[in-house]
Amino acid sequence: MMTDNVLEIRELSKDYGDFVLDKVSFALPRGVIMGLIGENGAGKSTTINCILNETQKSGGQVLIFGKDHIADELGIKDKLGVVFDENHFPDIFTPEEIGKFMSGIYSGWDWKTYRQHLEKFELPKDKKIKDFSKGMKVKLAFAVALSHNAELLILDEATSGLDPIIRDDVLDMLIDFVQDENHSVLVSSHITSDLEKVADYITFIHKGKLIFSHEKDELIDNYGILNCGAAIFDVLDKSEIVAYRKEDYQFKVLVKDRNKAAKQYPNAIVGPATIEEIMLFYVKGEMK
Ligand SMILES: Nc1ncnc2c1ncn2[C@@H]1O[C@H](COP(=O)(O)OP(=O)(O)OP(=O)(O)O)[C@@H](O)[C@H]1O
């Protein structure tokens, strides 16, 4: 049987001297949307650039569709759609001319789908890209990425500069895209609420290290925030606590198993945690 991971990253490292991406490993199963989260400078773009071999990795292994990402670069390219926050199509061209160019690059180029996307995104096919707004440029990049029968989309902060309405359109598009069970998406974003909406998996990188890569529902169902005063906080079992934040006389504590915590500390108030809160606690919280 074929591997069911479209992307496998094993101990991926990149040493920039003052920043090290440190043996990051995770796998993206076929048919899912994976959100890649982390603070500014955490290493999200470095990870994606190493996957795409835009940056040479210092160590580790990257398999795309079960094949080494460098040895099989040409075979992989056709099945990969990529969108960055800045897309540098030559801006003297029109979408129609970009289409002609892309049809020479991708063997699976599909004019009909491309024209449908241009229409859906209300992109004028004969207007020069230099006169496009930022949102229009990103939409054009999506139109290209979605028009050559790609099986894996990799998006690096592609939605960050878009207004909430276009962002919502793009998120719907990603959900549409994975309706085909052969399609998968890796999407990095600061906007954790977007990822909370669409991602099936969340991979969290902090200071160049992998903190976790889990199914989103598992995170949402299990993690929790326990609110308590100093008396309870002092007796909390250190091993159950991910991190805590002190606000006036209250302690807010991130726990990995909120049901267990609620049973163990019946006098504390325990509630669910959002992906954003989980990230905030890991990045800004203190360890007991
Ligand atoms: N070409 C480079 N040369 C040297 N250092 C680099 C290079 N590219 C990135 N870095 C460093 O790697 C670190 C991680 O950057 P990266 O862009 O991967 O983070 P990020 O998680 O994508 O952040 P952001 O959300 O701000 O885009 C930063 O400290 C950055 O300075």
Which terms summarize this structure?
elongated, ATP-binding, 288 residues, single chain, 2 domains, ABC_transporter-like_ATP-bd, binds adenosine-5'-triphosphate, Rossmann fold, ABC-2 type transport system ATP-binding protein, alpha/beta, ATP binding, four-stranded antiparallel β-sheet, ATP hydrolysis activity, six-stranded mixed β-sheet
Walk me through what this model shows.
Strands 6-7-8-3-9-10 form a six-stranded mixed sheet, sandwiched between helices. The protein has a four-stranded antiparallel sheet with strand order 2-1-4-5, with helices on one face. With 288 residues, it is of the alpha/beta class. It has helices at 44-51, 73-77, 95-105, 111-120, 134-145, 164-177, 192-198, 216-222, 230-235, 258-264, 275-284; strands spanning 5-15, 20-29, 33-37, 59-64, 67-68, 80-84, 152-156, 184-188, 201-206, 209-215, 224-228, 241-247, 250-255, 269-272. It starts with a strand and ends with a helix. It has eleven helices and 14 strands. Bound molecules: adenosine-5'-triphosphate. Adenosine-5'-triphosphate binds at residues 16, 19, 38, 40-46, 190.
Q: Determine Rg (CA atoms, Å).
A: 21 Å
| CATH evolutionary superfamily of the largest domain | P-loop containing nucleotide triphosphate hydrolases
- Strand runs, count: 14
Q: Give the topology string: H per helix, E per strand.
A: EEEHEEHEHHHEHEHEEHEHEEHEH
CATH class descriptor of the largest domain: Alpha Beta
What is the 3D shape?
elongated
Helical segment count: 11
CATH architecture of the largest domain: 3-Layer(aba) Sandwich
Number of domains: 2
Strand fraction: 25-35%
Distance between the termini: 46 Å
